[in-house]
Amino acid sequence: MSSARTRLSLAKGRLYLAITGPSGGGKSTLCGMLLKKYENLVLSISNTTRKARENEKHGEHYFFISKKEFKDQIAINKMVEWAEVHGNFYGTSKVFLASAKSKQQAVLLDVDVQGVLSFERLFPENTVSIFLHPPNMEELEKRLHKRATDSKDTIVQRLDNARFEIEQGKEFDHQIVNEELDNTFAGVCRIIETEFGVEGGQSS
Question: Residue 166 and residue 13: Cα distance in Å, rounded?
Fold first, then answer.
């Protein structure tokens, strides 16, 4: 893979790249790789009411706010979309999206299934959705235990939610199984460059 970064074209009207899958499915790792490859792809930083994990920073991974602050932003119509997931609220700010568009940036949405479907309803011509499947439920459970960020009860809840999310994933524009990371990355890049196009008409 070339070290030169690729610029996505916005000429087709594609503005939002929504990638999701069950917790532990590898979407955060994949999104990090995509942000390094595409020069004008930026991560949408969501607001959330959940507590920050040890390695997470306010304003870099999420904007960590209280439930009262979150509900206040909903009330004054500052959220494009929002949802309650695992007992916490997550949402996307209108201000962030407007800023990215003015800078000719494509926005990578690392959000849950409900968030993706909301974007597809609101911006059907501007959104490309990709669902990232785990190879199987056994592998997903192994990955959740390995990352060691959740309690046993939370892992059980995430696995229950994963079954629902996988069913919802059938409504996405594209589906891909994350069995081997490099192959998954190559496949996702092909989808992105077909859907968005690249500046200069060349893809890596």
Answer: 28
